[in-house]
Every structure is written in C-alpha cells, then in structure tokens.
Amino acid sequence: MSPLLLEQALARLLEHHDALRASFVRTDAGWQQQWQALGPVPLTVVSGPAADLPGAIADTAQELQTGFDLATGPLLKAAYFGFEEEHRLLLVCHHLGIDGVSWRILLADLRLVYGQLEQGQTAQLPAKTTAFKQWAEQLNTYARPPALAAERAYWQNLAATPMVPLPRDFASADNRLAIADRVTVSLSEADTRRLLQEVPGAYPAQINDLLLTALVLAFESWTGTRRLRLELEGHGREALPGVEATDLDLTRTVGWFTTLFPIDLDLTTAPTLGMALKQVKETLRAVPHRGLGYGIGRYLHPESLPLAPAEVRFNYLGQLDQVWAADERFAPASEPTGAARSPEDARPTLLEIDGLVSRGQLHLHWTYSTAIHRRVTIAPLAEGFIEALRRLIEHCLTADEDVGYTPSDFPQMSLSQDELDDLLADL
Q1: Residue 74 needs a FRET pair 20 to 30 A away by CA distance; which of 95, 211, 348, 412 works?
Q2: Domains in the chain, start-ordered, CATH in brackets?
Q3: What is the C-alpha to C-alpha distance for residues 410 and 82, in angstroms, rounded to an integer?
Q4: Cα(348)–Cα(382) distance, rounded to whole angstroms?
Q5: pTM of the prediction?
C-alpha cells in the first residue's frame, strides 16, 4: 500500500463529499454549520518495527480521536502504519459528519479511487447525489405547518402513555460513559444464516420485526410485563411527503442523517409467538414516516411536541460484512481505534443495545452503567434475547404459509387482523 496514493485518494474523497469539509462555529444564535475550502489532506504516516505496531496504533488513535477542532475541521483524519510487513490504515471521522450508511459509501469510494490510482488511471467517482445543505432545507420546509401537524397527534398520544420503568439494582443516577460496561451475545452462524436468508423467503416479516419481538419477550422475565418503550435509531434517509423522489436522492450523500424516535411495544394481548410478531410488525409499520417527523418536531418545533423518554435504545446496524468486497488491499483490522467519546459523557439511556452482523454472525452489544445495574442482571437478559430470537426463527420457518400476513402487507385494502385471518383461511 502506498501512502502517496492514499493521500491522493483521500484528497479526492474530501473534494467529492462536502460533509467531510464541514465545520461548526458557536454563534449567539447557536451552532452554525459552515463549509471549508479543500486544505491539506489529514494523513499521518507512522513507521517502525513490527513489535511496536500495537502501541503506535493505540497512541495515534487516541490522538486523532481527541484532536478534532470543530471550528476549523477537517472532520476526517487518517493514519497509515507501515511496520515492516504489517500495514494498517486508520480512518477517524467526527460523528457530526458521518453515519453508518455514510461509512459504507466512504469505504467503497476509497477502494474504488485507490484502485484507479494504483492502475495509473484518473480518479473518478459516481455522480454526486443531493447535497446535505439541500436536505436540511427540505427538512425546514417539512417542519412548517401544516405538513408536520398531520403526525403530531401520534407523538402526543405516545408521550401521554405512561412508561414502565426498568428495575434497578442500585439507586445511583451515575450514568457516565466512564463506568459503562458491555455484555456481548451472538447468534450462531447457522442461525444467522437462517435469519438473513431463509426467513425472508418463508415468512412476511423483516429482521427488525423479529429482533424487537425477541427484545420484548426477553424483557418480560425481568420487568414482569410484555410492554416496553424503546428509543429506536434509524438511518434517517426517508422520503419526505410532498417531495418527489427525483428531487431528493441520498443514496450517495455523506452526512449524519440518523433518526431517533420512541416507540411503545405492547404484547399483553399477544400470547403466542405468531401473534406477538404480528403485533410488533404492525406497530412498526404504523410509525409515521419511520420516525423522521419526531426528530424534526423535537428540534425545529420543541414547543409543540412533548418528549417521550425511553430507558432502552436499540439500533440494528445491518450486515457489516457487505461493506468489504473481495479486496486484498482492504480488510477489517482487529486493533482498537481509540475512545470515540469522552469518558465523562452522560449516556442518554440506561441500556443501549447495538446489533450488527460481522463475519457471518449476528452480535448484540448491551451497554449499561455499573453504578445502576450488575452484570449478573444484564447477562441473563441478553442471553434470553438470543433464546427468544431462536424460537422466533424456528416459528417463521415452520409456520403455515399465510400465518404471518398482517394488514400492512395489503395497504390498498382496509382490513382488521381478524378480517384478514378469516379471508386467508377461506382462500
């Protein structure tokens, strides 16, 4: 790998993706986003004997993670480590400039451009899609009445519903990142393959339907109820009502589009696995515009939208294996990338559950405060989730052909679940 070609490739990415050249300045009116001209490429080159590689990566990663200046940028930094036969590339980007989908775009572009330069070709990237600035302007337009008023009642009703608080092991309120711990559980490769490849063809449900149903079932043994309020994290690249798809294309737009929105999952009237899965599926489909309007209302019109707090945050990041194509030059490395957040940061929820598929397995990371919960409390909860998910996978692969259909599968028909079940039984 050539540091010179890497520098040229990174320069092309900074030129192409505007969000990587963003800066943020505090003004009397609040934080203001600005755009910087293309400057020096932030590539650090480190070399030495192979035995020193782990320490060099750890020191450099921490330096890059803590060295961002939001007022001057850039938001993307890189370090190349050439240690005898060992080579590593570290990319660090501030979250204000990138999200999970953007990382996939950026990594794919890096592979493409580096390969072109390596073969002596001119670096060429696919055409740009909608600029982040244009997307922000569209959000402001949608936030004006009466566009957002149509879904305000949904969020107001949710906020008015009492939340079932989580049990606590300790009365402490200390929820800093410094005292957080993590429990990781994994689905086997075989079960992950069934979940991703076999269930979609056998049962009309998406992976989030199964994951969230399993979550509620797992929490029941701890909370004593089949009701759970969650804060869901989504990719945020949703279609806006009234905006033509041809006018808004975010497929190659780098930036931070993430949505966060509350949802109440109530399975108290769903005694079987099939009924529980149907209930979660319909609850998710009923969320207006996949939660996009909640964040718009909370930040652009906070006086009109009450907060619906949640103590559990869930985020399924998808299949990270798909980010890496068969490429001998780039593959995931195992070394740590440094602390992405200050240890004094306050965590927004009691439990953060992040799911992803890596190396053919679904992994769930459960993060909690050691001042509030014991590991012996969280670990069985996480294992219970895996067991509930296995049962749901088995249900989907052995159920009758029509058993999983719900009214949202037939949006042009006005049917209740009972009416749909009767119709399918007659057919």
Answers
A1: 348
A2: 3-126 (3.30.559.10), 133-426 (3.30.559.30)
A3: 57
A4: 20
A5: 0.89
